[in-house]
Specification:
21% helix; 145 residues; 4-stranded antiparallel beta sheet; single chain
Length: 145
Amino acid sequence: MPFYEHVFLARQDLTAAQVETLMEGFTKVLAEGKGRVANSEYWGLRTLAYRIAKNRKAHYVLLNIDAPAAAVAELERQVGLNEDIIRYMTVRIDALPTEPSAMTRRDRGDREGGREGREGREGRGGDRDGGPRGERPRREPRAAA
């Protein structure tokens, strides 16, 4: 059977438990179509790049799917009818991934831990030419007016 990655965004006013219920419902839809969810990842409530249907945030969920095309078509139909889902995308892939996605890994570099951990990023924090700033020139006191 072909493999798919399916990502959907659920409304921000849902709880994590409600999103989990949505995932279970979509898993049942695939099981009825003789497919299966090989792996699912809840990426959490994240800020959107732009507002979608009056939502500034959304719950992100990834499903790695091993199912026939008819089961995936039914999944997309069910997702499209669900008013709690604001966006979704399904992509066919060659093989199911064996490691966690980049969104859930802890070694994401500068996204975790703020400004620390930005090794190898020369040109940041200096002058526009990328060099060190050095000391600032002293200001002369102003004459009283």
